[in-house]
Amino acid sequence: MNRTIVITGATGVLGNLVAKTFAKRGHNLVLLGKDQSKLDALARDLDLPAERLYIQAIDLLNGEAVHASAEAVHSKFGSVHALIHLVGGWTGGRTIPESSAEDLETMLNQHVWTTFHLLQSFTPHIAKSKWGRVIIVSKPETIHPSAKTALYTAAKSAQESLVLTLAEEYKESGLTANIIHVKSIDTTYTGKGTSPAEIVSTMEYLFSDEAGKVNGARIPLYA
Fold it and tell me: Are the C-beta atoms of 29 and 54 separated by less than 8 Å?
C-alpha cells in the first residue's frame, strides 16, 4: 500500500537511507529540513515523480510553520501515515555545574520543541488514517544516564516521554509510537555501534502490519 511518510533530518546519513529505502517501497515522501540545497540534492537523488514528493525548508521550532506544513502535506496527499523524526544533536562532556543554560536550551530546542510541534501538527492527520507510525531514534542513556551527559539525556528523556505518551493517547486509533535505542550510529560501517542499515531494517519491521501491536516500546538495537 502506498503511504505518506514525513521524514525530518533526511539529509543526514541515516535519514538519507531512510528516504531512499521507503521511496523504493513505493511510498510518498515528505522531507522537512533547514537546508534547501541539501533537500534539493536529495530530491534529485530520489528521482521521484512530483506527485510522490514534498520537500520544504522549515524551522521546526516555529509551531505555526509546522502546522501550516502539516496542512499543506495533507492537502497534497489526502492523508498522512507516518512520522520519522531524526533531527537532533549532542551536547555534553561537562558536569552539571560546568554546563550552561544556553546548551540546555539548545538541547531542549533540538529534541523536545521540534518533537512537540511535529506531534501537535501531524498526529491528528496520522490518526485519521487508522494506520499510523511514529518513530524516533534515541539512546539508552535516557534509562541509565552516564556522567557528563545531563543536558542531552534530560532533553532526550523528555522527547521520549512525549512519544511514549502519544502511544497511550492514540493506541485505539491504529497509531503506534516507538523508540529505537542505539548507543551510537556506525555511519562509516566500521562494525562499532549500530549501522544505519540495521536501524532502517527495524523501521521497516515497525512499518509492517505484523508490528501493529508493537507500541510504546523502547527497542534496544545495540550489543
Answer: yes
Cα separation, 170 vs 210, in Å, equals 18
Q: Cα torsion for 28, 32, 38, 40, to the nearest 10°?
A: 50
Lookup: cell for 12: 543526514
Which set of grid coordinates corresponds to residue 175?
Answer: 497509531
Which pLDDT score, from 0 to 100, does residue 137 have?
A: 98
> 44-55: per-residue pLDDT in tens?
999 999 999 999
pLDDT tens profile 82-100: 999 999 889 989 999 999 9
Nearest in space to 146 (alpha carbons), one of 90, 210, 105, 199: 90
Bridge-partner residues for 8, per DSSP? 32, 85
Containing H/E element for 53?
strand 53-57
Asked if pLDDT for residue 188 goes beyond 90, the answer is: no
| 3-class DSSP state of 31 | strand
pLDDT, tens only, 8-60: 999 999 999 999 999 999 999 999 999 999 999 999 999 999 999 999 999 99
Of 166, 154, 153, nearest in space to 82 by CA: 166
DSSP characters over 98-121: T--HHHHHHHIIIIIIHHHHHHHH
Largest CA distance in the chain: 52
Distance CA 88, CA 106 (A): 10
23 φ, ψ (degrees, to nearest 5): -65, -45
